[in-house]
Amino acid sequence: MKKSFMYLYKKIQQVRFLAATQIAATLLAAIVLFNSCKKEFLDIVPDNIPNIDHAFSNAIEAEKFLFTCFSFLPREGEPDSNPGFNAGDELWLYWEPVLDFYYKDPYRIARGQQNRSNVYMNYWNGFDGRSMWQGIRDCNIFLEKIGQVRDLDEIVRVRWIKEVTFLKAYYHWYLFRMYGPIPIVDQNLPVEVSVEQVKVKRQPVDSVVNYIAGLLDEAASGGEYEGLPSRILNQTDELGRITKVTALSIKARLLVTAASPLFNGNTDYRNLQNKDGQVLFNQTYDASKWQRAAEACRIAVQAAEAAGVKLYYQPAGSVVGQDPYTTIELSVRNAVSMRWNSELIWGSSVSSAFNIQLFACPQLDPTVFNAELKGQLAPTFKMAELFYTNNGVPISEDRTWDYANRFKTKTATATDSCIQNGYTTAALHFNREARFYADMGFDGSKWYMSNNASAKAPYNIQAKALQSAGKRNTRLYSITGYYTKKLVNTKLAFTTTNVSIERYAWPVMRLADLYLLYAEALNESGNSGAALPYLNQVRARAGLASVESAWSTFSNRPTKYTTISGLREIIQQERGIELAFEGSRFWDLRRWKTAQEKLNAPIYTWNITRETTEDYYQRILEFNQTFVAPRDYLWPLSEGELQINTNLVQNTGW
């Protein structure tokens, strides 16, 4: 029996760190297998096992536990850990990768391989070393025990409590966005409770949203000098910590999501019920949810602006040889990839953008080859076509743009300042808005880096087969012919043997995102006129005219912006453009319930294995992507989880 006792002992120790649903698994297995061994088990517990109270014996130990609570934050800046990057249709990777990846999970999801027996990117049970339920459990332990730390300044104690309250909300939010209605774990259950008590059930969508919103309100409460700070003053040690603006902005995102079609009166999930018949999705559309979301956005915007958060603009003349186009491009790029810039509301403290820059950056210099510059994070044709023309309207709507011949070739002249003079490339690449050139590299494009050899001219991207940025081997290339320039910090430098990377905190939330959320909520709540100024501020940074001016002057749908449905289309496309390659589109398509349209479309590439212009510029079908609705809007719960906790029900379609 000794081996059995030790096994049971280890199981019980694990209970302290398992989430509510996992507790059920551990206790059930222990009770079934070892019910007859209780007395002997108690006799073998060592006397020197550390007690959880030791973690709160003083301020130093408590701070360690605080950072443990932070450690469960998903690594949202890692291309293989954030489903927003590679599990949708923004970015594509050649298949099947053998090197240069941590997990194949997101790529399998994008290719329609998600399943319930081996769930990909399964943050419910634990993925990438992070279990959201375990994070919630540790947050609960912290909130329960922090009051017993005697040598902790009260101001610091209150701040820590607010931070952990936010983290508890965020872990619930992260699961909610993936799985929909989830259990609420407000307090940890004692280890000695019965098996039935730990078999938690899922809570209705509205209950989950209200619970998370309440936690975020609690985290953000308090005056300027109590609780969370409005801004981080100690930037040496505390960047990435939680502020009031962070909490208010995540609440805004939560409530906009809750008001969106996926969660607001979604009859596709009318049969998703707990085993007691409790309906988990509200079945009636509630317009007041948009009003609630708009108010949350208003409060968050005001708090952000009062704290000094503002859209990032590259200072004119700050770069040698800088022209107006470069100024706009750097404003767009640096809003994401500049360290702790003025626009950042919350940068991830557990995920600096390092690997993603290597995945995004191609071989820039034809005289220098470095295998660390992989160039594999390839934007899709969908994204190349999503950006506006230089007139600020969609390419299919601009009366002055030749949409029908966009895949034919054209030779650039000196007036095409964003394309190499005299270079022949696709007509799709001409006369596009600044964000197209700031976000994407392509055959014939220019790529500004501050560490260019000349320091006065950008790199010239040439991406046909055997050219410097093109396919020259079996792995270091873009499958589509496009590159993700936006995510590469301009200070990245390289030689044949070394790469120097300026890390930046991944922007979980920035002001442009919040402005667009506010514009969306205002429009959906019937206040479209008030939405336009926030939309236009984002466009102005990109060098575009206002929505009213651009559509009235250039669009074949000149009154589109004057209706709620028309402005909805504009706002959704604006989000797709402004937040391109930041992991937003994946979730937006789901909450809008447009994924069944957008993700049931082919993935195309240029003919990247060809060397001549004529052969290269042939559009090739790479993959027929499929999306099954309503099944694919939510993650499945694993079959093992359902067997362990029989009170849980599976998501519709799985």
The domain tally reads 2
The largest sheet is:
2 strands, antiparallel
CATH class of the largest domain: Mainly Alpha
The gyration radius over C-alpha positions equals 26 Å
- The percentage helix is 25-40%
Give the mean pLDDT.
90
Catalogue the unreliable spans: 1-49
Per DSSP E runs of 2 or more residues, the count of β-strands stands at: 14
Strand order of the largest sheet: 1-3
What is the molecular shape? globular
**Gross CATH architecture of the largest domain:** Alpha Horseshoe
Strand content: 5-15%
Annotation field: number of helices: 24
By helix and strand content, what is the structural category? Answer: mainly alpha
Distance between the termini: 41 Å
Domain RagB/SusD: 368-654
Protein name: RagB/SusD family nutrient uptake outer membrane protein
Subcellular location: Cell outer membrane
Domain SusD-like N-terminal: 118-219
Characterise the protein shown here:
The structure is a single chain. The protein is mostly helical. The chain has two domains: 2-72 and 106-312 and 636-644, no CATH class; 75-105 and 321-627, Serine Threonine Protein Phosphatase 5, Tetratricopeptide repeat. Helix content is 39%, strand content 8%. The strands form seven sheets. The chain has a two-stranded antiparallel sheet. It has a two-stranded antiparallel ribbon with strand order 2-12.
